[in-house]
Amino acid sequence: MIILHANLQVNPARNDDFIREVKALIAASRVEDGNIAYNLYLDIEKECTYTMVEIWENLDAVASHNKTDHLKTFVSRAREFLAAPLIIKSYKGEPLETPTL
């Protein structure tokens, strides 16, 4: 399992435009083969700061996602919305059994 965290600092004046564009990206990405989760989270302590958390079955699924038109379109337009460079961190993970509470 591959987990990606994309940190996005959005220009407050362009936040509504960003939300509109990112909703299309999320919807298209969620139906891709190999996608387990694709969620955007708002940082409640930093204005217009978001983290996209992506979970993919494997590196092949990530590579396939990186070639999609919807991701390429979003990335090409991201410069219009972002107030700082996009930061992406990737992790290799595996599910853990959690005890029942």
TrEMBL record:
Keywords: Monooxygenase, Oxidoreductase. InterPro entries: ABM_dom, AI-2_Isomerase_LsrG, Dimeric_a/b-barrel. This is Monooxygenase. The keyword Nucleotide-binding does not apply. Residues 2-91 form the ABM domain. It comes from Paenibacillus marchantiophytorum. GO terms for molecular function: monooxygenase activity. SUPFAM superfamilies: Dimeric alpha+beta barrel.
